[in-house]
Design goal:
The chain is an alpha+beta fold. It is built from 8 helices and 15 strands. Helices cover about 35% and strands about 25% of the residues. It has a 4-stranded mixed sheet. A 3-stranded mixed sheet has the order 1-9-8.
Amino acid sequence: MSKSYYEILGVAQDASAEVIKKAYRKLAMQYHPDRNNGNPEAEGKFKEAAEAYEVLSDGQKRRIYDTYGKEGLHNSGYRGPGSNDDIFSHINDIFGDIFGFSGRGRRRDPNAPVQGEDLRYDINISFMEAVHGVNRQVEITKRETCWTCEGTGARPGHHPQTCPGCQGRGQVIRSQGFFQVSTTCPRCGGTGQVITDPCADCHGQGLVNRSKKVNIRIPAGVDTGSRMRLTGEGEGGRRGGPSGDLYVVIHVDDHEYFQRDGQTIYLRLPLSMVRAALGCEVEAPTIHGTSKLKIPAGTQSGERFTLRGEGVPSLRGGGRGDMVVEVQVQTPTKLSKRQKELLREFDGMSKEQEEEGFFSRLFHGHLGKQKKKSDDSEKVANG
C-alpha cells in the first residue's frame, strides 16, 4: 500500500481512538464485499481499511508505526491481518454494539482460574438488634470447590478434550445478513475443551453443594435494606480461582412502641390529664433504657419533646441521633365514686371560670360589632 494508514482511513495523525474507530466503521460499511457483489476493488479497499485499523487501534503497533513506519512493523514481527476470518473479525467487533451481537472475541484459556459467583443471603433481625448490633451465626448451603478434582471438573488423572463443536476455537461462526458473526460455542462455553471423563463427586462442574456455618457481625445502626459484604464467603472458585463474596441483606422487624426515621426515634407517651395539667417529671423509656423528661404544667395532647442523643447510633460514626416524645393525654374510663365527686367539683369550678370568660368575650365582642355597625350607619346618613 502506497498510502499511509492515516490516509487510508482519512484521519489526522493525532486522531483519537474514537475518531479512528468511526472512520473505519464508515469504510467497512461502504466496502464490505457482501454489499458490493464480489467487486475485487471494493474487497481490496476493505482489506486496506482492516489492516489500517488493526495497526492504529493497537497502542503498541501504532507507536511503532509512527516511529519506524511499516518497515518497523515488519521488523517487530507484524505480518498484517492474515486470513479472511481475521479481517472479518474486525468488522464483527466494530458493529457488535450496534446490532446486538458479540464479535469474534477471544477463546478462553481452558486452564485459567475462574472466580466463584457472588451470593445473597436475606436475614431478619429485631428492632433492638438493629439499633444495638448483634452477632448471628447462620447456616447456608452453597456450591464450594470440589476437593476431589480441585475445581477442574475432570476425574483425577484425566484431561479435557478438544471441543468437537468448535474444533477448539471456542467460537462458532454463522452468517447474519452481510456479516459473519462469531458467538461463544454453546458446547464448551468458549474454552475450546470439553470434559469427557467428569469427576464422580461434582459430575464435571468443579463445584459441590455443601452446608456451612457463617458468623455475621451486624453493626449498630443498620436498617431495612442495609447490605453487608462478607469477602470470600460466596460460591467457590474453579481451577484455583478465588471464591466469590456473600452479600447479606438486612430486614428489620417493627417495634410495638418505637418508630424510627433514620437516626431519630419516635415514641408516643401516655400521660394522665392530672399530671399533664399539674406538670411532672417522668422516666421516659428509650432504646437505651430510660431518661428523665420534665413535663411542664398545662401540657396538651400532641405536644412533642426532644431527648438529645437518645436515638440510633450512626453507622459512619459521629454519635447518636435524637428521640422525639409525643405526649398523649389520657382520659380516665373507670372512676371510683370519690373520684367522680372530685371531678364534678373541679368541673363546676372550671365551668364557672370558662363560662364567665367565654360569655364575657362573646358579649363584649357582640357589643363591639353592634357599636361599629351603628357608627358606620351614622356616618353614611350624615354624608
